[in-house]
Amino acid sequence: MTETPDLAGLQRRLADFAAARDWGQYHTPKNLVTALGVEAAELAEIFQWLTPEQSARVMDDEGAAHRVRDEVADVLAYLLQFCAVLGVDPLAALSDKIDRNEGRFPVT
Ligand SMILES: [Mg+2]
């Protein structure tokens, strides 16, 4: 069974991949956040004309499921690279946000 890689290891692999190709010069925060938006739109495009019921079953179709996983990877890759160049810890940012939302939206 393949072990799920950790976030820091994936960020290091992404950085090494870009550095080996001298792509770091293109990885400005502006370029990375723009690419992130494009990839998020590619993910949304898969669902664009589906009914709610079809969208809930999208992973039942092997081809569609592959496209979803591929675009999820693209979105996460650009988000992690964006965080790396700005020194944002994405897990800490998410944890802080959940803490704030738990305070903002108490269970009634
Ligand atoms: Mg893509």
Automatic annotation (TrEMBL):
This protein is called Nucleotide pyrophosphohydrolase
List the Pfam families hit by this protein, alphabetically.
MazG-like
Q: Which organism is it from?
A: Streptomyces yaizuensis
